[in-house]
Design brief:
Helix content: 25-40%
Structural class: alpha/beta
Distance between the termini: 40 Å
Strand order of the largest sheet: 3-2-1-4-5-6-7-8
Number of strands: 16
Shape: globular
Strand content: 15-25%
Amino acid sequence: MSNGLEQQRVSASHVMVVGCGALGNEVLKNLVLLGVEHLVVVDFDVVEVGNLSRSVFFSKADADAHRLKVEVIAERLRAMNPMLEIQTICGDVAYDVGLSLIRRMDVVIGCVDNRWARYCINRLCMRASVPWVDGAIEELEGTARVFIPGKNCYACNLGPEGLRDMAKRMSCTGVIRRHEQAGSAPTTSLMASVIGAVLVQEALKLVHQEALEQGTFTSLCGKMFYYDGQHLTTKLLDFQAYDDDCAVHECWTPIRPSELSRQSSVSEAFRLLGQMLDAQSVTILLENDCFVDYVAERANDRRTEVMCPGHAVEAFVEKADALRGIPFSGLYQHEYREISADFPYGELTLAQLGIPSHDVLHIVADGQDYYFEMSEQ
């Protein structure tokens, strides 16, 4: 390529794309057209009829069959390039993407629709010291930003108000429905094309680190690209914050190999960790979620066994016959955020605690922090 991008480096790059909606479709299309051959795609949703007006890879047959977005994406991208190596994760980036997998990426591209998902992508990338690119679209407006560990952190840019509103979300489907009710035409596909191109452009710049350092490219890191299609204007706004005291962008290093896997029981994990660390006290920190063994009714303290990660409790409660008719607000949960040697369920596996595949465990042994990469068994 004569534009400063090296085809061999582009082809060899490893890119993760989180979100397979309108923006994710455009990003993935551009990556494959440019020759990227190693992709990881993350999304937990199925194809809906509402996706068809703005997503190039989805069809009505996919929507009718309620096919997983990641499944359809992989199929269509392989049709574009049979040599493509693509791994799919049908899950939530907050709970189902392991840090070991993030570490293998050259760059992560976030095509998500809410602050919480961006916060989680940022947390993973900062821990793994991997740059990421973020895009957002709505109506005839769109933005693109770049976050590089040590230079720019999404969490540091949120501020108090952003942190309060972080869990709020309206998906692209919600935006479309809102405009349909108002009688206006959805413009998501237009913004996805524009912002998707900018995201891929910025991601591939990050793959060419030497060119960035030499000034061949200029990165968006520390800036926000804003596009206003209604008035055909663009702006570059300052968007850089990096607080040294922010725990979110703490880098996990060094990361050591281990024989632990998701199939390891808690008891086996403590045995192996004890051998490796020769420590008197060992604790496994559940950094991204908690483990809940039971919920209790606030009115009478009657308990119902749950035994699942915290993010799955509400869905369990909705289906439990013993809790039928009791609002979730009428319950409290008993949870573990740290697992120590006296954990009463030593027979449970790390997978049952909610630890995802390809993850890195944060261990505290005799007051010292350690990070162990799990095997892929």
